[in-house]
Amino acid sequence: MAEGETIARAAGVELALVCPQCVQARGEEQPLVRAAPQGPAAGWRCPGCGQAYGRSAGGAPVLLLPGTAGAAASGPVPADPAAYYERARTREQYLALHYPPPDADPLAALLGPHAPPLAERYPLAVPALWRAAREPAGERRAPEQPGDATSAAPLAAAALDAGAACGRLSFELAREYGLVFGLDRSLGLIDAALAVQADGVARYERVIEGELTEAVEVALELEPAVRGRVRFVVGDALALPFPAGSFALVLALNLLDRVGEPRRLLAELARVTAPGGMLLVGSPYTWLEEFTPRPHWLGGLRDERGQARRGAQAVREALGAGWSLVREDELLFFIPHHARSGQLGRTHVQSFRRQR
Ligand SMILES: C[S@@+](CC[C@H](N)C(=O)[O-])C[C@H]1O[C@@H](n2cnc3c(N)ncnc32)[C@H](O)[C@@H]1O
Residue 2 above 70 pLDDT? Predict the structure, then answer.
C-alpha cells in the first residue's frame, strides 16, 4: 500500500478505506488518503478521482457519494436535523435500545415477569446468533477463545456492522474480531457511538413522561484495547467504502427496510463479504414509503400475477446461487419511547454463508 493511504489496522488485521465513488462508477478500489489531517479542512481524498470527503463533528470519515444528501467536500459535515435518524429523540431511543441498564430493563417495567429477559432480546442476544451461524450444530467447539487463531472467529479477521447506529453490536463484534467497522449514514448516531468508544460508557436521557427525563449511564465493560478495534464511519450501505471480500462477518440488522434500494444493499453486502464468510440479514420487514419507494419494496405486496411477495424469500432470491442459508432466527427488540410506552418488534434474521 502506498504511503499516506488510509489503512485501518488492529490486532494484525489491515483494511484500506476506498473511494465509494470509484467503486460505484468504475469498479475501482482506490484507497483514500488523509487530506489536511489537522485543521478545519481535515478530511480524506481520493487520489484516483480527486474527490474530497469530510468528517463528522466527532471526527469520523464521512464517505457518502458526492451529490447525495449529507455529502460534503471537506471539513466538518453538518447533519440534517430534520432527517429521522439525526433527530435528538431518535438518538436517545437508539442509545436506550443498544445500552439498556442491566438492572432496570424498560420492557420489564411494562410487562413485569412476562418480559423476555434482556439477554434473549436484541442486541444482547445477537452474538449467540452469529456464533451459531458460524459453527452450525455438530461443528461447534467449546468454549470459544477470543484470539484463538484456530477458532472459527479468528481475531485475525475483520467484521462489518452495516447500519450500526450507536454501535453496540460493533463493540460486541470487537470481542471476537480483530478489526470491526461500524458504518451508518447518520452523523449523529456515529458520533454517539464514538462517545461510547471514548470511555466505554453510554450516557443518554431516558424519557419518563413528556419533557421529563432522567440521566442514564451504562458501562460496556470492554477494555480500551477491544473498543479500539472498532472504526466508525459515516457511509452509505448502498455504496460501501470497502474493497470486495473484506469481511469474514457482515451484519445488517434492521437496515433492509430503511434503505431506498434494498436489492442494491444486498448486492453491496454480498460484494464485501469474503468467500467463505457469513452474512446476517435481519429485518422486521416494515416497508414504508418514507424510507423505501414502493417499487423497491422486496415484499409486502403482490406481484403482477397476484402472488404475495414476502421479504424473507426475496432476500434469499436476491443473494441467489453462491450463498447458503445456514439458519433463521427470531429476535425481539424493544425501543423505549417513555416510561410507559415503546416499540416492540420481531426481527427475522437469516444467516448466510458465502460459498468459496
Ligand atoms: C432501524 S435502524 C437500525 C439500527 C441498528 N442496526 C439496530 O438494529 O439497532 C436503521 C439504521 O440504518 C441507518 N441507515 C439508514 N439508511 C442507511 C444507509 N443507506 N446506509 C447506512 N446506514 C443507513 C440509520 O441511520 C439507522 O441507524
Answer: no
